[in-house]
Design a protein that fits this description.
By secondary structure, the chain is an alpha+beta fold. It contains 8 helices and 7 strands; from the N terminus they run H-H-H-E-H-H-E-E-H-E-E-E-H-E-H. Strands 2-3-1-6-7 form a 5-stranded mixed beta sheet, sandwiched between helices. The chain has a two-stranded antiparallel ribbon with strand order 4-5.
């Protein structure tokens, strides 16, 4: 009787693969987990950084741009070019009798008046316009348009209407009327000189107790 005997040698590669495959899988798992964790940390750090950047440029009470955010916006060659092209209107706004309101009704009432006023100003502007709180009770609306005078007149009319309405919060009723001055950019003006013109026009409106906005050009024509 003849029998067949077949010997199949174990392949060295297959044997090695069988031993190291779990190790490779474990290492791959560590690499994937490490990459996922690194990505998560990077996203978290980026989000935190962006949040800090936004916070540094935003007024914490009203949620609009603060002075630092405004300065960053206007100190660019692009914005300077818009000034030279006469496409900028500034509306300088002061909340009337704010100090009296704080003294007589308390800081909570003052904060409420600022918050509501900021919301009313924002609703009076277009989505493309910028609103900043300069500090205290002063705000600045920044309008960019080929016809800034017309757009500024529309915006100030809306602001006059909205801020003429009292603020009612529970049993508390507050008045939040504003004084407004407007300056229109010209080729020979810088940002600082434009801001000074808007401030001067606002002061004229406040001193004269005017409800409507005072435009700087109109102020000069009246004085002449």
């Amino acid at each position: 009787m003849v029998g067949n005997f077949i010997w199949r040698p174990t392949l060295l590669g297959a044997q090695l693969l069988r031993h190291i495959a779990p190790i490779i899988g474990l290492l791959a798992g560590f690499l994937i987990a490490g990459g996922w964790l690194s990505a998560r940390v990077a996203v978290h750090q980026t989000t935190a950084y962006l949040r800090e950047q936004v916070s540094a440029r935003t007024d914490s009470l009203t949620g609009v741009l603060n002075r630092a955010g405004l300065e960053e916006l206007v100190r660019t060659p692009k914005f300077d070019a818009l000034i030279k092209e006469s496409k900028i209107a500034l509306i300088y706004i002061d909340l009337n009798n704010f100090k009296t309101l704080n003294d007589e009704r308390g800081h909570n009432a003052g904060d409420l008046a600022l918050q509501v006023t900021a919301k009313r100003l924002r609703k009076s502007l277009r989505a493309t316009d910028q609103l900043a709180r300069l500090g205290g009770d002063e705000f600045l609306c920044l309008i960019t348009d080929p016809d800034p005078t017309t757009v500024a007149k529309i915006a100030t009319n809306r602001i006059t209407f909205k801020t003429s309405q009292p603020i009612v919060d529970g049993h508390m009723t507050l008045s939040a009327r504003v004084s407004m001055g407007v300056a229109i950019s010209q080729a020979d003006l810088t940002w600082d000189s434009l801001l000074l013109r808007a401030d001067a026009a606002m002061y004229n409106a406040k001193r004269s107790k005017l409800v409507d906005a005072v435009f700087y050009a109109e102020e000069l024509s009246k004085a002449s």
